[in-house]
């Protein structure tokens, strides 16, 4: 059975369609990623699935329960970590955990095995007020609190936004471990490089889903051969690529420019006086796919 | 140890649910107290405000009462009147300016404006006491400043009571008359006023702000997604403020009794019961505001402008409602603090019982029920 | 353009920024990286003249960081992810307001705002409230306004957080254009691929600058394939965060 089923879901705010006919399904025990920039509609989808918002059209179920009719049942079984840090800053780590355990009608002891790995890391600070914790620690505490009642589905809304790369990496390692506990996890992120860590992903922009598949399949669907090119004069190179008739698409990508083209590009670039040109094929990333899909849409 | 039959009783699912709910409620309330106690600014507002207000109002309005100038018109000139006069003279509240020889002299003295009170002993004062065990004294006060007038007359009354207490079985009834403003209109009976103001502020603003804060920080999102009933969130928010407000009522009453020497003339349990009712009215108002707003500033502004101002304007605490144009008088009727103010005044100052205030009580109950209904109706189990 | 020498900021016992020394040349794009809480924000505030250092010296565009903060403020532009523009003013109103703050004349304001709206392709949106624009457009507009008064240096605090990949690249094109015009760009980011777009980057760990070089040299010296690895190697040992 699918843990989460979303059917033609739509949410409209005054003049803006935040979620536009979105459908997807998440299997039990899957780590599913909603990948897209801010304003793509990720938070609205999360809020509808966690029964905080009513959809304007369409339907959705979480563990078989309807998000509108059976909201009480979902509130018992879902874990939710909203985008911003939403714990009590003036309560200590311990007080926060105990409070949320009670709210979810359970105790820390009952589900300790689930949160143990994470809790150990914040245990040294358990008498500290949550507001005084570092960003990474806050995140771990929030995850503990969201897990405290052993939810069957865990919703994480942009857990890594604004977090530095090291903490991000640690966080994803924690998610990997949670997956082993057979908890279905739906996570949203604006960082394309985190897509590879999910079992399946949905790329989303302007409330519409661009593509849903495993990261490998999304990448495999990239139709062209992708090249990375660099030169001593990067800015000029980018402009030359944009102007070249051979080039289908080009954009900066780290220290290289990624480019799809036909013909002898290297020669043409050399003609324009660029030096130190390196041109080689490069593996396609999710970000390349996202850019491709976005451009197709536009 | 529980007996076996009781143990089996506690295993009934229904009972377990109740036990769990109570535990949740307790944890929630404890958390709420932690919020309040850890925030110095809130604490200061919560407990500093009533003290400061009572003291400011109290001293600003009462320090003139010491050494108030009075005149005495002693038509009796006998032992009893002389004894009482010397008692009054000995009191630090009064300064006998001069003795007058006739009623016209009293009037003249008041018109000159340098005296606040006149005490008139009737002829045969001592004789009345000796033969009927009962005599009367006329006390005339200048009620242009009604607060001072009431304070002074209550001082005189207590001096007279002191005197008769030592003279069993004699009784002396002071007949009090207020000049210029006989109904004591607009009397800044500030203790009832401060009580309605402080309760309004603490209950409405604090409740509204503390609920809206959870919306702002996003913790409300997490609570809503939990099985904890959203209604319980609200109720458990209200309970700590009910308790804190009762502490405030006690503080104000203690201060007014012991620091400002303003006695509570009526029943104290009744006063607390009515205060609890008013606090519940205010909490409901606060909840209503929190349901309708999404930011702490807006909640604060609405509480201040929408609640404090009407309390000051329409409760009769600062400005006499009777003198207002009719439309404003009608508006004043929907301001809960007006009714509470009248109730407290009746109990504290006039010493009246429930029979005198049942109407006001009923109106407050009505307002509360309507507010409760409206806010529970508009309360959302979702974000928007 | 920027020169610091052992610049430090202490809050009580806590040394937020510990003796940082670096230089940024005119027209350079300088990436200022670090884990959360490494001291980036504190350092940036000092450089913008918003907070006084505890010790050390620095000059910004030739002005002393202690005594000439007013001149510094006139010669820099600033943009952050959090505060950028007034959402309840229109695009044009925002441009005029911020331009006005920096003392542009009415004539200048008129031509510049037309130019800017044209460059960003915002003609249709000029009269719309900024709050109604998509995030990416807001960020681009916000950057353009930050360089409207032709500052010598522009400070960008995580300018592209949460922005889609295409807009992010458009944003960097704006940065390149500004650098070509001779504006020095000082930028912080959590996207490691963006670090590659910088001429030079520094990586702060626990209040100190642990590495400072071109992206290529850093990758070589850490034998790393990507900046991500370089960053991870340096920041993993961080003791503190925020």
Notable characteristics:
heterotrimer; A: 298 residues; alpha/beta; Rossmann fold; six-stranded mixed beta sheet; 34% helix; C: 242 residues; 9 helices; 26% strand; ATP-binding (chain C); P-loop_NTPase (chain C); ABC transporter ATP-binding protein (chain C); AAA+_ATPase (chain C); nucleotide-binding (chain C)
**SSE ordering of chain A:** EEEHEEHEHHHEHEEEHEHEEHEH
Q: What structural category arises from helix and sheet content of chain C?
A: alpha/beta
Helix residue percentage of chain A: 25-40%
Under CATH, the homologous superfamily of the largest domain in chain A reads: P-loop containing nucleotide triphosphate hydrolases
Would you spell out the secondary-structure blueprint of this structure?
The complex is a heterotrimer of chains A (298), B (384) and C (242).
Chain A: E1 2-13, E2 16-27, E3 31-35, H1 42-49, E4 57-62, E5 65-66, H2 71-77, E6 78-81, H3 93-103, H4 112-122, H5 135-147, E7 153-156, H6 165-180, E8 184-189, E9 200-205, E10 208-213, H7 215-220, E11 227-230, H8 234-243, E12 247-253, E13 256-261, H9 265-271, E14 278-281, H10 286-297
Helix pairs in contact in A: 3-5, 4-5
Chain B: H1 4-10, H2 13-38, H3 40-62, E1 68-74, H4 79-90, E2 94-99, H5 103-112, E3 117-121, H6 125-132, E4 134-142, H7 146-165, E5 171-179, H8 190-217, H9 219-224, H10 230-259, H11 268-292, H12 296-314, H13 326-332, H14 336-349, H15 354-378
Parallel strand pairs in B: 1-2, 1-3, 4-5
Antiparallel strand pairs in B: 3-4
Chain C: E1 2-11, E2 14-24, E3 29-34, H1 40-47, E4 55-60, E5 63-64, H2 69-75, E6 76-80, H3 91-101, H4 106-119, H5 135-146, E7 153-157, H6 165-180, E8 184-188, H7 192-195, E9 200-205, E10 208-213, H8 215-221, H9 227-235
Parallel strand pairs in C: 3-8, 3-9, 6-7, 7-8
Antiparallel strand pairs in C: 1-2, 1-4, 4-5, 9-10
Helix pairs in contact in C: 3-4, 5-6
Family (chain A): Belongs to the ABC transporter superfamily.
Keywords (chain A): ATP-binding, Nodulation, Nucleotide-binding, Transport
Protein name (chain A): ABC transporter ATP-binding protein
